[in-house]
Amino acid sequence: MKKCETTIRARYQETDQMGFVYHANYLVWFEMGRTELMRSIGLPYIEFEKSKLYLPVLKAYCEYKHAVGYDDLLTVTTCLESLQYVRLVFNYEIRKEGKKMAGGFTEHAFINEAGRPVVLKKISPFLWNRLCKALESDEE
């Protein structure tokens, strides 16, 4: 499966009164990692939007292992975990100096502009094949 590493630094505005990064910001970091992964395989989200296709989140899960604070330098590792006809799943790990701080996944559907699920393989064989290729690449 294709993996992508994205480096981010926790910003002051992302912290709460206790000085820790607010929990919802981890989902924003997941999105940053996902966006970079899609870009790295030649499928920035704009390619889906040109085809009037969208990828809303169906499920999101995050497990917090250790607190992250202001100015911490983090690596978000994102991988395309699975691909089905109408959905796909991304896995994430957030690390600081090699230590796992959080991890999780998001599941997304392929929908059209009317908000209805679509079978990507039928609607856009090009996008489907590119995702299949990414899923098969860099297998470990």
Task: Explain what the structure shows.
- It is a single chain.
- This protein has one domain: Thiol Ester Dehydrase, Chain A (Roll).
- It has 4 helices and 7 strands.
- The protein has helices at residues 25-40, 45-50, 120-123, 125-136; strands spanning 3-9, 53-54, 57-64, 73-83, 87-96, 99-109, 111-112.
- The chain is elongated.
- The N and C termini lie close together (7 Å).
In brief, what are we looking at here?
This protein has helices spanning 25-40, 45-50, 120-123, 125-136, and strands spanning 3-9, 53-54, 57-64, 73-83, 87-96, 99-109, 111-112. With 140 residues, the chain is an alpha+beta fold. It is elongated, with a radius of gyration of 16 Å.
Order of adjacent strands in the largest pleated sheet: 1-4-5-6-3
Question: CATH fold name, please?
Answer: Thiol Ester Dehydrase, Chain A
Alpha carbon gyration radius: 16 Å
What general outline do the C-alpha atoms trace? Answer: elongated
At CATH level 2, the architecture is Roll
The average pLDDT score comes to: 95
Number of helices: 4
Q: Considering DSSP H and I runs of 4 or more, what fraction of the residues is helical?
A: 25-40%
CATH class: Alpha Beta
Q: Could you outline the blueprint of secondary structure elements for this entry?
A:
Elements: E1 3-9, H1 25-40, H2 45-50, E2 53-54, E3 57-64, E4 73-83, E5 87-96, E6 99-109, E7 111-112, H3 120-123, H4 125-136
What characteristics describe this protein?
5-stranded antiparallel beta sheet; single chain; Thiol Ester Dehydrase, Chain A; elongated; two-stranded antiparallel sheet; 7 strands; alpha+beta; 27% helix; 140 residues
